[in-house]
Structure formats: structure tokens, C-alpha cells
Amino acid sequence: MSKKLFAIFNVNKPSIVAPVCTNVTDDTDPDDSLSSLGSITTVESTKVKCVDLVPKTCDLGTLLTGPSRPVLEAIIRSRGKKGNRQSKLHGHSTSKQHLTCMAKWEAYISTTITGSVHSQVASSHKLLVEKNAQYVKTLVDITLFLSCQGLAFRGHEESRLSLNQGNFKEICNLIAKHYPEFAEKFQNTTNYTSHTVQDELANLCAENIRHKITKEIEDTKVFGIMCDEARCFKQEKMSLCVRYTVGLNIVERFLGFIDVSDKQDAESLSVHIFAYLTKNNMDTFHIVAQSYDGANVMSGKFNGVQVKIKNKFPYAIYTHCMAHRINLVVIDMCKYVKETRTVFNTIEGLYIQDCFQYH
To answer: Which residues, in sequence order, are bridge partners of residue 291?
Structure first.
């Protein structure tokens, strides 16, 4: 049976099968009582004569392996040069469809090793983002260093031909000499070192510090405030500091400057203080202490800022700033002791001279 089943792979001529003749006879007896139950039909078949043309040398294999690979007949004058004889398999290997499929298969194998084009582009973009982030992180470190040391960021002349481009750019030049990755970004036309970017970096660092101060005050939820005027060119500003405890330690932190150029009466100053505390999410905490100078607009007991603060926070005790008290003592002393005026004038002159030499 297996030889007949797999003979189609290796025969050169079709097998000749003799026709099958069948005789159908009815063995039902009309007088039999079982005829009412149905007739019984018997089929007698004649022997089937098959002519097996499978060569004896053909390897049919087993039921598990199957027959051997068929030998395809050669074709003449097809796909070859000058009528060369070639097999159908060889002719298919040079066809356009086969070559296209092979190219696609090789491309697929290559993508499994090196990744797809999308993944390669994504990896390259990710590497670029990491380099940019590292560059900006270095600029932030420079900003924090200059801020902690109290040094100026910019100079009078920041062009490439200047001998002193300012502290910020000079530190960038120093780092670029030792780190090629930083120098690659810093030497570009867009290197994020302009004065606008410097101000933005400083503001972001200050915002982060104010957020940390707010988190520290959340533990006790009480703090004290200290305010004083701070003039800046044509603007009138007010500096705001907070005093609170971290564990058993008392700390003082500077929050920022508040622009009060529009009006400097007690009502507007207190409104600016409340608005600044609300901006920094400190309006839910309680003010238990306040300290200002001796000016009537700040320390007045009837309509001063300290009264406006106490109306909202009754436990905010006012204390006249001790530093301002010492300043008043020194001023009164200079009025009556001539030598003290000479000492302070000399000290101030040396300070101004050193400042001009530094710049």
C-alpha cells in the first residue's frame, strides 16, 4: 500500500489501473419473514489489476521519513544562456520572486541581531537626550557653585575675544578643556549660556530651595518672618526671611525678594507678604513671630505691618530687630565721637577700592 501511495514522486509514466467490475446480487427471499425488516445486499468485487511501474531502485523510505527527494527532469531552453540545460530548482533560485523573498529574509535576520530601524533611531535619540541632560546638569552645578560662593555670574564684556567673559563662561571654558563631551556642546552656536538662560537656571534653583524650606516647615507648621527693605537700582524691594526649627536646631532661611515699587504703606506691604507666602504654599502654616526695623510703617502698634500680621495670626509676637538696634547705637556714637567716624569711613573706603580693583 505504501508503494502505491508514494509512487507519484518518482514515476516517469502513470500507472495503468484496470477497471473494477462489481456485481450486486440480491439474496432476499420473497417468502422469508425477515423481508419485512429490509433486504440484505451482498457485493462481489472482481480482482483489481494494477500495473505498478515504480522502479525497484526507488527509495521510498518509511512511513515516518517518507520517500526520497524526487529527481526533477531537466528542462531545455529555459532561463539559461545559449540554451544551457538546468533544473527547475536552479531556475527558480534565479527568479525575481525568489531573490526578493531571500532579500526580505536576510533583512529580517539582520534586524533580529542589530534591531529594527525604529529601535536604532530610538536608541540614537535616547543617547542624544542623555548627553544634553548631562550638559545641562553641568550648567546647573556651575550655577549652584557661583550662588553658594556669592560670586557674580556675568562680566562687562562676554564676547569670545574678551579677556574676562564673566565667572559663568570662564568656568565653562575651564571645564571644556578637560571634558571633550562638554566642549562639543559648549562650542556650538546654541550652548545655553546666555544671560537669559543663566537667570532661568538661577530661578529654578531658587524655586527648588524654597520647596525644600516649605517641606522642612511642614514638620512643625509654625515659623517666624523677618522683613527689611532692599533697594535695587530704581526698584524698591523687600527681602523676606523665615525662622523655624528643625528638630532642636533653630535655622534662618532667605526666601526671596518681593517687588513693592508700586506702594510702600503698611496695607500694601502686608498684602505682598501674604501673597508671597501663599505662592510658596506656606499660607496654611502659622506665623508665631515677626521682626522688622523700627520704622513706623513696619513696627507701628496701631497701623503698622506688625498689626496687620497679628490680625490674621494673633500669636505673631513682634520683636524689634536686634541688628537694627545696634545700627542705631553706632549712628548715635558717630555723632559724638569723631574718631569712630574716621574708622568707619576708612573701612568703607577700603571696601569700595577693593570692589573697583576686582572688577
So the answer is: 226, 319
